[in-house]
Task: inverse folding
């Protein structure tokens, strides 16, 4: 209910009760970047929970298979089929899918983007596709910058402070934005040296291999900086296998899944960027229903305002909040 | 003088042919040695026992799959489902380790893989459909099963009785590397020292002739797919125990890496010829490139490009050598 209250402040005159009063059935499609992924599953969970608050809202999930062409085709098919009043999209290609979504909005389908804005500018949260209802996301550079600032603080008394970066994939525009933010913040400090950058591809196994290789040449790292908790799961094993003391290394990831929450709470890792996929799903669904029923909706719902968690979740914060549970398993 | 002349100046045709044969036989090894030398000069961290064992350990799951896949390809088949079987075995082992017994989980992975491989073989031989199409279809089914088991989520398996397979060492050598060596020797023995192996070559070389000479070709094919499935299952269990985490998307794309390694090693994609050691060499070549990139901290953008160029060079070397023979 807390999230709903927050959303009510974000969306003008949003009222599930108003929707309850009307008889028309509202069908919403969730176009997941991949339905086989824990993060997307949690967004869908939020969508389903929000839909359950209405009597007339049904939702269906579509698997984007982590493929931009697949998702593009899905949008075209759903628009042609005419079954849905709205779409929540977690894009695989933030730029390429814009054309298909323009067709959707032109056909009267309400569209909400989640996780990333749709369009060429990843830092612009305002609609870049004509007719887009709302974007539930935050600028990936903001979280990455805050993360890097935490690293700077940790490195204050170390010279040199050796940093290893594990990024998802540099061919992804959003990972490039994060990587540039890391470089920008860390590069401004002479004592900080980025000794290696590896690609984790959001896989613990790939990250384990990359970290094992990196440790061959850099066995004395001070910081492991990553944009994804999945990377830390693999890298942690490589660090321990190399005989290093994990507690001596500043380890920070992104995503705030339950595995990361447990590791940070136990003091094994230091921090992670907070992400709240279930809340994202809830917010997107409520916004779409409001739009379908003729309400005005804020064009940008800042993901970081959806929960009561700080942008960077730390060991200290988790100790102060022992009841906290992540919104997704991992 | 004449005798001396003849002895000192060999026939150039013979020289070209022998060089060509040597290049075809050992092209992948030549490139591996060149990479080893180059990377050793480029980084002090490369040519160390620790790093070389690290490369072997990382390559163990892929190499195990490639070893068994070699038999499938020599037998004239193609297996595109190894990645998906790897995924099913991974999540099944993870689930069983947590909910039943960790040792049973280690056993279950290869057994499940073997069963799924048998299904492939039975469909291929039973319906007479090409293995490429069948395994493409079953890979989708198996991947779906993996997702259904986990619901798309990761399964943490932090159990010492399970993770030893992927993480423990005997001396300096990882258990996974020992498993790889044993498995490779087993596949080499099966292929080169048994009647089963000779039949695999016969079926891949000329299936009709093999059939006419009394070989039960369908049975041989089913057996090769069983081995391939079992290997993918074993590889899946090793991978899960290494990272203490089962993920439904594990092994995505692994089937193509395994096929690339087998072909890169020099096993004929048309069937009928090849060797297990060649496929392991192909795996190691790909692993060396990745390791070198990480150690030298080269921009990842160049990794695919370099890998592709080296594969083209290796394949071209083998092809040109083949023509010159």
Result:
């Amino acid at each position: 209910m807390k999230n709903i209250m927050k959303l009510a402040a974000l969306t003008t005159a949003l009222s599930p009760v108003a929707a309850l009063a009307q008889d028309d059935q509202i069908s919403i499609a969730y176009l997941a970047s991949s339905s086989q992924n824990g993060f997307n599953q949690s967004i869908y969970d939020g969508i389903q929970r929000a839909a359950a608050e209405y009597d007339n809202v049904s939702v269906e999930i579509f698997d984007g298979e982590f493929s931009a062409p697949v998702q593009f085709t899905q949008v075209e098919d759903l628009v042609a089929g005419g079954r849905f009043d709205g779409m929540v999209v977690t894009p695989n290609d933030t730029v390429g899918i814009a054309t298909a979504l323009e067709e959707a909005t032109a056909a009267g389908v309400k569209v909400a983007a989640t996780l990333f804005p749709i369009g060429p500018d990843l830092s612009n949260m305002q609609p870049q596709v004509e007719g887009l209802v709302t974007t539930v996301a935050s600028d990936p550079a903001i979280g990455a910058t805050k993360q890097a600032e935490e690293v700077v603080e940790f490195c204050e008394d170390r010279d040199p402070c050796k940093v290893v970066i594990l990024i998802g994939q540099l061919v992804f525009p959003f990972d490039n934005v994060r990587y540039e933010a890391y470089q920008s913040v860390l590069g401004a400090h002479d004592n900080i040296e980025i000794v290696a950058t590896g690609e984790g591809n959001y896989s613990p196994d790939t990250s384990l291999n990359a970290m094992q290789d990196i440790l061959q040449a850099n066995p004395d790292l001070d910081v492991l900086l990553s944009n994804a908790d999945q990377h830390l799961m693999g890298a942690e094993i490589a660090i321990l296998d190399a005989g290093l003391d994990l507690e001596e290394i500043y380890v920070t990831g992104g995503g705030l899944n339950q595995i990361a929450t447990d590791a940070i709470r136990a003091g094994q890792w230091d921090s992670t960027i907070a992400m709240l996929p279930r809340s994202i799903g809830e917010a997107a669904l409520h916004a779409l229903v409001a739009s379908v029923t003729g309400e005005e909706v804020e064009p940008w719902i800042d993901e970081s305002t959806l929960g009561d968690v700080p942008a960077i979740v730390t060991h200290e914060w988790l100790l102060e909040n022992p009841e906290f549970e992540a919104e997704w398993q991992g | 003088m004449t005798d001396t002349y003849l002895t000192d100046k060999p026939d150039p045709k013979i020289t070209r042919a022998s060089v060509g044969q040597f290049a075809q036989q050992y092209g992948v090894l030549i490139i591996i040695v060149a990479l080893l030398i180059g990377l050793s000069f480029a980084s002090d961290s490369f040519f160390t026992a620790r790093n070389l064992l690290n490369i072997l350990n990382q390559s163990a799951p892929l190499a195990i799959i490639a070893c068994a896949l070699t038999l499938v390809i020599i037998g004239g088949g193609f297996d595109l489902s190894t990645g998906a079987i790897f995924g099913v075995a991974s999540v099944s082992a993870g689930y069983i380790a947590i909910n039943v017994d960790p040792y049973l989980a280690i056993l279950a992975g290869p057994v499940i893989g073997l069963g799924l491989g048998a299904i492939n073989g039975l469909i291929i031989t039973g319906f007479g459909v090409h293995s490429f199409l069948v395994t493409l279809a079953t890979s989708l089914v198996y991947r779906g099963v993996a997702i259904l088991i986990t619901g798309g989520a990761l399964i943490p398996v932090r159990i010492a009785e399970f993770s030893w397979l992927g993480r423990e060492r005997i001396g300096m050598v990882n258990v996974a590397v020992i498993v790889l060596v044993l498995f490779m020797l087993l596949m080499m023995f099966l292929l080169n020292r048994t009647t089963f192996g000779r039949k695999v070559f016969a079926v891949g070389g000329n299936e009709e002739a093999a059939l006419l000479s009394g070989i039960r070709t369908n049975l041989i094919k089913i057996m090769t797919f069983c081995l391939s499935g079992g290997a993918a299952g074993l590889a899946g269990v090793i991978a899960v125990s290494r990272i203490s985490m089962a993920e439904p998307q594990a092994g995505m794309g692994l089937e193509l890496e395994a096929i690339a390694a087998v072909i890169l090693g020099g096993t004929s994609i048309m069937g009928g010829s090849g060797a297990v050691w060649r496929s392991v060499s192909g795996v190691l070549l790909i692993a060396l490139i990745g390791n070198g990139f990480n150690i030298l901290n080269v921009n990842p953008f160049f990794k695919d490009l370099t890998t592709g160029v080296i594969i083209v060079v290796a394949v071209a070397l083998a092809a040109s050598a083949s023509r010159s023979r």
Remarks:
- The longest helix of chain B spans residues 12-42.
